[in-house]
Every structure is written in C-alpha cells, then in structure tokens.
Design brief:
The chain is an alpha+beta fold. The chain is built from eight helices and five strands, in the order βααββααβαβααα. The longest helix has 13 residues. This is BTB domain-containing protein.
Length: 136
C-alpha cells in the first residue's frame, strides 16, 4: 500500500492574517478578474491584484495585459489550486502526489522559496524521481 505523506509550509507573515477577505472572495468567486486555464481546460478564477502583488515575475504580464486569462495548461488544476491557496494565505500543503507539479509551477513563476520547500520535502523522503525534477 502506498503511503501519502503531507507537509504544510508557511510564510513568516501569513496572508490570511493580513487580509482574510481576499481568500474568502476568491473561494466564493467574487470580484475575480483573472482566469488561470489549467490542464484539460479546467479554470481557476483569481484576483489580478493579488497575483500581481504575490508573483513578482508575472506582475508586468498581469498588469499590462488586457487578456484576462493566463494559459497554465501544462499544469494540473490541483497544483494551480495549491499555488493559489499559497498566494492567498501564505500556506502551502504538499504531498507525495502533488510535490513535483507544485515544484515545476513554482519554478516557472520563480517562487524560489516555494521551490526550496518542495525540494526539502522530496529530499527528506528520498523521493523517486526527485533528481529528474530538481535538475531539469
């Protein structure tokens, strides 16, 4: 039987403590103005201002574009939702099933501390395939 390990990582200052309302609005899909198109054309709705503030690499793209959709179709909906939860709350939960896709997504948006958390998780668990992911 395969055992799934989980670990939760936190920012020093949790976003949920700074502005709980944003996370609630996102969950209720209220006032969202940016759509993340994930694998199999599944959609995740978010607030442009929150993503621009929390993902500096995407700030210019998000702020200057009139397009309200980001094509993240190479990423699964579960990894995009996990990163979205992190963006809004400062809390990231990874498991043996989600760590690799989250690592790749974090690397693509240059969230180095999230990438390091995923590396730490994989290395501590002697994760199969970790070398392939870590040294792409």
């Amino acid at each position: 039987m395969f055992c799934t390990y989980r670990e939760t990582f936190f920012d020093e200052i949790l976003m949920k403590d700074a502005c709980t309302e944003f996370s609630q609005l996102q969950r209720e899909i209220v006032l969202v103005d940016l759509t993340l198109k994930t694998h199999n054309d599944l959609l995740v709705k978010v607030h442009r201002v929150v993503f621009a503030a929390r993902l500096p690499k995407l700030q210019d793209c998000i702020c200057s574009s009139t397009d309200s959709t980001l094509d993240w179709s190479r990423f699964s909906q579960s990894s995009v939702k996990a990163l979205t939860e992190y963006v809004y709350t400062g809390r990231l939960e990874v498991s043996t099933r989600t760590v690799q896709p989250i690592y790749l997504l974090a690397a693509s948006v240059e969230l180095e501390h999230v990438r390091r958390w995923c590396e730490q998780f994989m290395v501590q668990r002697g994760f199969d395939g970790a070398q392939d992911v870590l040294y792409e």
